[in-house]
């Protein structure tokens, strides 16, 4: 897993490796990727994925329990938007 991918949660989710693999294209595109757990107030919004590059920031949300295919689709969408 690239060092540019960081999970702000312990313990890591069971499907951590699959999620990280889905995020690799973002890291390969030069983004620092941070996955934040759902907060109590915003739990219905799901995971927040923050993307940072020098002078640029983006983020997206993905539901808790999303499949690896959903993660990959969200990553591809984020790459198209950037």
Architecture blueprint of SSEs:
Blueprint: E1 5-7, H1 16-28, E2 32-36, E3 47-53, E4 56-62, H2 68-81
Parallel strand pairs: 1-2
Antiparallel strand pairs: 2-3, 3-4
Helix pairs in contact: 1-2
Order of helices and strands: EHEEEH
User: pLDDT under 50 segments (min length 5)?
Assistant: none
CATH architecture assignment: 2-Layer Sandwich
How many extended strands? 4
Major sheet size, sense and barrel closure:
4 strands, mixed
Percentage of residues in DSSP E strands: 25-35%
Q: What overall geometry do the principal axes of the alpha carbons give?
A: globular
Rg, Å, rounded:
12 Å
How many individual domains? 1
The share of residues in helices is 25-40%
On the 0-100 scale, what is the average pLDDT?
Answer: 87
CATH topology: Double Stranded RNA Binding Domain
Q: What structural class do the secondary elements suggest?
A: alpha+beta
Could you walk me through the main structural features you see in this protein, from its secondary elements to its overall organization?
The chain has 82 residues and is α+β, with helices and mostly antiparallel strands. It has a single domain, classed as 2-Layer Sandwich (Double Stranded RNA Binding Domain), CATH 3.30.160. The chain has two helices and four strands, in the order E-H-E-E-E-H. It has a four-stranded mixed sheet with strand order 1-2-3-4, covered by helices on one side. A hairpin with a 2-residue loop joins strand 3 (47-53) and strand 4 (56-62). The chain is globular. The model has no long low-confidence stretch (mean pLDDT 87).
